[in-house]
Amino acid sequence: MIFQIVITSTAGIVIGILQSTLFARITPLNIVPDIALMILVASAWRYGSLPGEISGFLIGLGFDAMSLAPLGFHAFLFTLAGYLFGRMKDNISPGQVIFPVAAAVGVTAIKYGGSFLLSLIFGLNSGAIRYFSLNTVWELLANMFFAPLVFLLVSLAARLSEGRRGGFH
Question: Nearest 5°: phi and psi at 14?
């Protein structure tokens, strides 16, 4: 479990750094899909709620360190997403496209709805916190487009890292 948390958190933070620097410069109209959040959702579904929560918290702290949002803002949102999608581990079997796309819609709603609610509750009026806009719709569409690929890559990486299970040889 520790290995999965370390790999997921490291991948999420590295992709988060790339999202905010490199991807923001090369994507058209400055619309960047939230690949780090998709990695969190895919790995939380794969490994369960506890690794999803811990990985979400660590990735969120990484995002908090990179942004102007208050410390713990992204950590809360990513922890919530990791927990909720980790709870689906044994309840939903993802297909190739339908579940990843639905997960992208759900996690984008959690991200923007949660940030809106947190800003209302705590009176956050920071320019670093994005609310619903036309860019939100474009980001949602980009998340939906890239979600099946991210789920596939996380699944392949998990199979490679888990190795072969015991049994008769």
Answer: -65, -45
- Are the C-beta atoms of residues 81 and 111 closer than 8 Å to each other? yes
Three-state SS across 85-100? Answer: HHCCCCCCCCCCCHHH
**Side chain identity at 10, as an amino acid letter?**
T
Question: Domains in the chain, ordered, with CATH?
Answer: 2-162 (1.10.1760.20)
Distances (CA, A) of 27 to 16, 66, 139: 15, 20, 11
How far apart, in Å, are the Cα atoms of 72 and each of 49, 65, 90, 167? 19, 9, 29, 44
- pTM comes to 0.86
pLDDT single digits (tens) 45-93? 999 999 999 999 999 999 999 888 888 999 999 999 999 999 988 777 7
